[in-house]
Amino acid sequence: MWKIVMLIISLLVSANCFGFTPKIDAVLVKKSEKRLYLLAQGKPVKEYKVVFGPKPTGHKQKVGDERTPEGKYILDYKKEKSVFYKAIHISYPNEKDKAAAKLSGVNPGNAIMIHGQTKGLGSRSWLNQRFNWTDGCIAVTNQEMDEIWRLIHVGTPIEIQP
User: Given 2.40.440.10, 3.40.50.880, 3.90.550.10, 3.40.50.300, which CATH number is that of 22-161?
Assistant: First the structure.
């Protein structure tokens, strides 16, 4: 019995030594910190520096306002064929967003994603990631996008905070 316990402990320790990441069950974005956190059981296990659109303050209201939405959404599909390296779609607009846009007489938009760099420009991420350059999406480097892509499953909830 003692050998089995020691084997289990050694496997757990070696898994952590080799970069084992627990199952990600939520994503948190804090716009004011320019950070995206991958969460497991409510605790951050991975952290990424992110950039947004040129007008990051405030909630997205309509197409073209260059803002990132704030609220609770779902990562509802992955898109490998994109103008960006890879992209994971955020379920914006939700019902509340649609109702607010209808009252204002505007189109809320719908192509909000977590994505890597524009295809062909990944080598410039050291520069791109210093500026808010998206149209309201959340951008990371291509290396980070590979890791996020691998760890996130379709259906994962995402909360975007101011």
Answer: 2.40.440.10
